[in-house]
Amino acid sequence: METTLLVSTAPPDDPRTASCLRLARTLREAGENVEVLLLQDGVLVPTQRSSDGGRSFDELLREGVRFLVLEDDLRLRGFEKDDVGEGTQLVTYRAAVRRMAEAGISVKGCF
């Protein structure tokens, strides 16, 4: 089955983040496999879980959406793996690019 990989760079309280998480939920409810790759300030989403973005994040984890967090961006912002909690996977730049290039992956930007 094909997987949709949504890429987000927006911080937790940005409307683009809420939009990206809504899209992830809609795709998941339609039966698609969904992953969200968090880059730049997007890596703060699992660390802050504030406003609607936070609730949606936790709900999406329970619904089976997989979150990939760029490790270097997370560390540049002063956070570690323990700060993002269960259900997220830290990835390197190389692993992120490899995942985007894999067969069966449809990449969509949430910018």
Describe the structure.
This protein has 111 residues and is an alpha/beta fold. It is built from six helices and five strands. It has helices at 15-29, 45-48, 51-63, 71-76, 81-84, 93-101; strands at 3-8, 33-38, 66-70, 88-91, 105-109. A five-stranded parallel beta sheet has the order 4-3-2-1-5. Strand 1, helix 1 and strand 2 form a beta-alpha-beta unit. The longest helix is centred in the first third of the chain and has 15 residues, at 15-29.
Give short descriptive properties of this protein.
111 residues, 5-stranded parallel sheet, 46% helix
Main sheet specs: 5 strands, parallel
Oligomer: single chain
Mean pLDDT value? 91
How many helical stretches?
6
- Give the N-to-C terminal Cα separation: 25 Å
Short description:
With 111 residues, the protein is an alpha/beta fold. It has helices spanning 15-29, 45-48, 51-63, 71-76, 81-84, 93-101, and strands spanning 3-8, 33-38, 66-70, 88-91, 105-109. It starts with a strand and ends with a strand.
Secondary structure layout plus pairing:
Layout: E1 3-8, H1 15-29, E2 33-38, H2 45-48, H3 51-63, E3 66-70, H4 71-76, H5 81-84, E4 88-91, H6 93-101, E5 105-109
Parallel strand pairs: 1-2, 1-5, 2-3, 3-4
